[in-house]
Amino acid sequence: MTTVLPDLRPGGGRSQQAVGMPELLQVIWHETRTSRAAIHRARPDTRCDLRISASAPDRELIGTILLDGDCACRDLLVDMLVECDRHLSDRAGLLGNPLGAARVHVRKKAVHDWIRRRRTEVGAQARVDRIRTSALALGLPDEFHRALLEYLADEAGVMAPLDSEDALHRRLATRCAAEFGGAAEHYRARVAAGMTLVERHCRSGTRVNAGTAAEPDKVTWWERYIERPMGRRPRRTDKPLVTAAPECGDGTHQPPEPASADAADFDAQVVAVLVAALRRQPVTPDAALRAGLDDLVSQGLLPQRCAIELCSDCNRFALAAKELSALR
Q1: Considering only CA atoms, which of 267, 254, 262, 253 is closest in space to residue 296?
Q2: Average pLDDT over residues 200-221
Q3: Where is the segment annotated Disordered (predicted)?
Q4: Residues forming beta bridges with residue 4, ordered by sequence position
Q5: How confident is the model over 107-135, as pLDDT tens digits?
Q6: 156 and 104: one domain?
Q7: Is 185 exposed, middle or buried (0-12, 13-18, 19+ CB in 10 A)?
Q8: Does the CA dihedral 110-230-224-220 come out positive or negative?
Q9: Which helix (H) or strand (E) holds 52?
Q10: Residue 9 CB neighbour total at 10 angstroms
Q11: Is residue 207 assigned to a domain?
Q12: How many domains does the chain have?
């Protein structure tokens, strides 16, 4: 994806010092170095493909900056450029050092707002530094369980891949060892038991609105801030489902017909495909279910839309994975 940034002049020429986009980009590049490095650490399996060029062969784009690539750090840079341009324009004529003001704004406010905004976009808590002192946390038996609640709320908004519940247990055990001392492996069983208690406690409280004021969706705190955003985290085992080009002239795509008209035979085929996927990955039912859905779509036994809807609904997906694991 390529973003074209015109050579804007924040402040519209009314500031005491005109600022060009290349100079502003250089300031933002320096101030976001730590945040960009954190993004790259969170996604070790992907290579940063960000490319920046100050000119273009197209004469209509002369004097512009091109940001090309699909890395998440590109989104951070673009958002910071827009935010700094707005920040400086709102203070036009009042700043003696616009670049210095942009530097301070990025370092102290803009980056932190971007992180909180990205977390809320996936449904997680914007910040977790005060969860331990909340009324919800004070209802837990001890400091260990309150820390576990904070870790879970934080992990729900992390962009790093999360392949399974076992991987989540390892991450939580590592965080427990860093705070309370000892080896991470010593906390594995305690983390698993603690998660059960924390989940039960968070499901028993007052329900919160996960929808809108016009269309409310009352769910438990656990489902709203832990379960749903945790289910949206990427997985290293994820594979894109094969998409077929629409064949109809109106752009609609009809799902393929089942391989057999008999309902019993059709159900047997679906179960056989899912069981075969489970046998390939018996330890991880979640990954087996995703692989099985991919196979069903490719064999024409399941519409792609239905597979995507199931994968995006963490509650239905968890229930389906549990039912699949019972077939072993």
Answers
A1: 267
A2: 90
A3: 232-261
A4: 66
A5: 999 999 999 999 998 899 999 999 999 99
A6: no
A7: exposed
A8: negative
A9: strand 51-53
A10: 19
A11: yes
A12: 3
